Amino acid sequence: MSINEQKILIVDDDPIILKSLKELLAIRGFNPNTAIGGQEAICQLEQNNYDLVLLDLHMPYVDGNDVMAHINNMQIDTSVIIVSGETSFEAAKNACAQGAYNFLRKPYATDELIITINNALKEKRLQKQNKFIQKQLSESERLHRYMVNTSPDIIYILDQEGHFTFINERIDSLLGFSKEEIVGKHYSFLVHHDDMQQAKYVFNERRISKRASKNIELRLKCKDDGSSRHFANRTLPIELCAMGMYSGSSQHNSDYTGTYGVARDVTERKIAEETINFQTYHDLLTRLPNRALLRDRLSLAINQAIREEESLAVMFLDLDRFKNINDSLGHMVGDELLQQVSMRLKECIRAGDTLARFGGDEFTLMLPKLHHGREDASKLAGKITDTLKQPFTIDGHELYVSASIGIAIYPQDGTSIESLIKHADIAMYHVKGQGKNGYQFYSNEMNVPYFENLSLDTGIHKALDNDEFNLVYQPQINLRTGEIVGVEALLRWQHPEHGTVSPADFIPFAEESGLIVDIGIWVIKTACAQLSRWRMAGLPEIRMSINISARQLMEDDIVNIILNILKDNDIPGQNIELEITENAIMDDMDSIIRKLKKLSNHLIAIAIDDFGTGYSSLSYLHKLPIQTLKIDRTFLKENRINKGDNTIINTIVAMARGLNLNVIAEGVESQAQLDYLREIDCNEAQGFLFGKPMPADVISQLLTQEPYDIPGSQSRSTKGTHWHH
């Protein structure tokens, strides 16, 4: 603001003097206002802001002293120059006491007046600038304090000896200390004792710029509870911040005065890192080490065993019958059982042993420093077997599980991680094969069946990928009419190196390994596709019988899979019959009954295969939606028929007739067997007498020929009959 822009008020009771002063100031570039008398001056001061007042003392009613009193009482920010005819020293003294900038006597010298006015306005201008700067500094300081005290980080300053000279309020919320408790204390008061050595370099930092310490992790002690929090601590010399930590303008030619630092709480980050690290190396359900951590510890243990010439053992443990519990009672009960099992196993091992969960119901134990090798491992295996004999109580269920344990000893059973784990796994499967619930040490003889199974596993996968499987079909004959009413789809494996592989050689392994699920789906798809081709060719409607395993029935989506395959091939449900064994039903009767009823609701027939060789319970015949019983071939041997030992077959056929069930006899190979079956009024039969399992094209030809010529049959034609195949 220039002098000419500053506002001036001239106060006098003489209009001539007012006019004279106004014209004088106007000549000098000012634009003053005037007030006649003290009362008008007070009114103008209340309405406008003036930088300077030229005030006469002697005025009627309200004189100059009254005006100055009003200015002081109302704290009006303006300067006052007294221009008066009063010549006494006392008058000048009183005016200055009330805050007058100067006192000029009338008559005054013009130059003196102008100089005094300019000086007063200049001082006023400087005062305003100073107030503005002070206000800005005050606001800046307020904002700075606000930012420092509300910062999520601890901000501090240390003196040369490492004592706190400043610390913000964040110290209270993070560590529980007030600022007063920390200021004056040495930094070691806060630092965790294990981090003291590193703290010496960080808190005594003198370097600046890029060389200063950054992101150094320390632990600071909290108040009272003794717990600690993690901090990423970085210190910076004050040259790079507003407060300054060096006495001069640069680090090289000035004295070091202290250290400025920021400590950021990284507790949540450390917890997240620890959580991620834990999840990487532990099983989240049981909180046991996982496969990765076990391998790491086993590697260290092997190296230590090499140095100290000691033994160690690896145990592979698989829970017996766990899948039945998990499938019947649900995964929540299964998970709780795994947790309780892991707790019992931990109670059996030593502090230096490692118990890991490999996945599912498999656990692995690593036992280092075995002084007596097999003997020590046997004792622990026995201890585990005994502790698992006690029941587990979960959600009101009393559950029993046992374990099959395979043991491999270093160095005789392997010297690497892979060999020890593999050999322990082989030994465990050897226990499974001998009835479960026990333990075995690995031996080389166990490798033979292991590698046979490994070869089968690989071979079956390749067979599915390379179309090595095929289906053949065995006719099922109506014994009254001689017509082919159905065929049974039978699986064959044509191995590229070993030729034809018997189903008896690979189906049991496929059942045990779970590969039967993929094989079974392939069989259903292939059989339905073939049936669809026969129907599209206009051949007689027949029933396709397909074997389905217990393992397939355990699949949650098996019903939808079957129904979708039928839909894709446009096959009615009544053209399909699924053959299941009695043993398959008993594995999980309630679940299987529900699934079979859903299939039966779509007119799919259900047959019990090999009836009479399993439970043969009348109760499940009433529960299940069964349409057919298949009599096992063992009951149809000729020597039994010739001796009259046919009570079982007679009973089965009579029972089926009473329950309105269809009966199919398997393994019919002679005329005597056929005559007997017709005599007891058996519905249908299949066997070599009518034909061996045949390729699809041969079945196509048979379906176009006349029915089989069965003596006494009610065939619809007297034309040529089927040849025996």
Provide structural commentary.
The protein is of the alpha/beta class and 725 residues long. Helices cover 43% and strands 21% of the residues. It contains 26 helices and 26 strands. The strands form 5 sheets. Strands 18-19-21-22-23-24-25-26 form an 8-stranded mixed beta barrel, surrounded by 5 helices. The protein has a 5-stranded parallel sheet with strand order 2-1-3-4-5, with helices on both faces. A 5-stranded antiparallel sheet has the order 7-6-10-9-8, with helices on both faces. Helix 2 runs parallel beside helix 3, helix 11 runs antiparallel to helix 12 (331-348) and helix 17 (516-536) runs parallel beside helix 19. It is elongated.
- Describe the strand arrangement of the main beta sheet, using strand numbers: 18-19-21-22-23-24-25-26
**CATH fold-level topology of the largest domain:** TIM Barrel
Strand content: 15-25%
Given the helix and strand composition, which structural class is it?
alpha/beta
The largest β sheet comes out as: 8 strands, mixed, barrel
What is the number of beta strands?
Answer: 26
Low-confidence stretches: 232-246, 716-725
Provide the domain count: 4
Number of helices: 26
Helix content bin: 40-55%
Shape: elongated
CATH C-level class of the largest domain: Alpha Beta
Radius of gyration: 52 Å
